[in-house]
Amino acid sequence: MSRFHTTRSLAAAASLAAFLQWQPSTADESTIDVVTSFSILGDMVTEVGGDRVEVITLVGAGEDAHTFIPGPSDVKVLTEAELVIVNGLGFEGWLDRLVEASGSDATLIVATTGIDVLAVEDDHHDEDEHDDHAEQDSHDHDEHAEEASHDYDDHDEHDDDAAEGHAGHDDHGHGPVDPHAWQDVTNAEIYVHNIAEALIAADPDGHEVYEANAERYLDELHDLDHDIREAVARLPEDHRTVVTSHDAFGYYERAYGITFIGAVGVSTDTDPSAGEIADLIRQIREEHIAGVFVESITDSRMIDRIADETGAIVGGVLYSDALSEPDGPAATYVEMMRHNTDMLTSAVSAF
Ligand SMILES: [Zn+2]
Q: Residue 275: pLDDT above 60?
């Protein structure tokens, strides 16, 4: 919340200052305003953009993008935006309506363009109208994104792949896709490439800065990915299953080999039924479930209840869809991934 407001009031102060100043501003003349949809993406854009960008984030630290309801101030932010960077894959189900309400003609970039999309395994979560709608939204804004990023020749092929992933859902009846792609650090590296391209296209004078920032950040991500693999490799192979509130860790599971069971589906906008919770409790008792984890963006009561009934260890708080506040343990994407890995591996080791 506070990060969002701070960023926005800084932006407001900056535009007021610009308005009051008759002479051309010396300081912020070359900064560009970039709107991002949620805190994790906002951090990545800040890393690549450095001092040349002012990042405005719609869904702030600790907030849930699945259930976010844009307000009038968000419409205003979109109206004034030149560049909007989103996750896509149905994560921002509210985005198309917001773009439409704002009349924005901003360039819309989908940061997940080119990733190997993960289909949802729908164990205990029925598709509902809302999910279908979100997928439809995602499909629509991917078309915008394809137009927006049409100039990047080397990514055209990837664009087609990503778009087909969504179109496939609508046109051929494939299941929905998992939007939480940032949970695999090698996907985050693709986000960074897409972000750098978008910033260079919007602000060509800054290309050396963006390329240098991206290169430094990609080195950091490469080390992060290596460290996570090493940490998980130390765990016994038959003790690598944990329970979380919602299915936010499918990409982490595919990349790093810890198995996650989510109590609800890939979105947080539905509650599990009594039967679904009973099934989950039975599964925890029957299998070697190392721990159950609360997520920062969701209510902890359901996980507490599951832990009570099964005797599973509550392994701590994981940050799945949003960063923590700046003084918390997951203030940046890199800190978030390290924190989650520490929580997961220490709970599994303690089992
Ligand atoms: Zn989520």
A: yes
For the domain spanning 2-10+30-224, the CATH number is 3.40.50.1980
Q: Measured in angstroms, how far is the CA atom of residue 179 from the centroid of ligand 1?
A: 7
The residues placing their C-beta within 5 Å of ligand 1, an ion, are 248, 321
Bridging pattern class, strands 107-110 and 83-86: parallel
8 A C-beta contact, residue 108 and residue 228: no
Ligand 1 geometric centre to CA of 319 (Å): 10
Instruction: Tell me the fold of 235-350.
Output: Rossmann fold (3.40.50)
Q: Among 273, 268, 289, which Cα is nearest to 350's?
A: 289
Give distance in angstroms: CA of 91 to centre of ligand 1: 8
Rounded to two decimals, the pTM is: 0.77
Ligand 1 centroid to residue 213 C-alpha, Å? 28
Question: What is residue 153's DSSP assignment?
Answer: G
- Where, residue-wise, is CATH 3.40.50.1980 in the chain? 2-10+30-224, 235-350
Go through the chain and tell me how many residues it has.
Answer: 351
Q: At 190, is the secondary structure helix, strand, or coil?
A: helix
- Please state, in angstroms and rounded to a whole number, the distance separating the CA atoms of residues 351 and 349: 5
Q: List the structure tokens of 202.
A: 């919007």
Least confident of 49-58, 111-120, 308-317: 308-317
Distance 328 CA to ligand 1 centre (A): 20
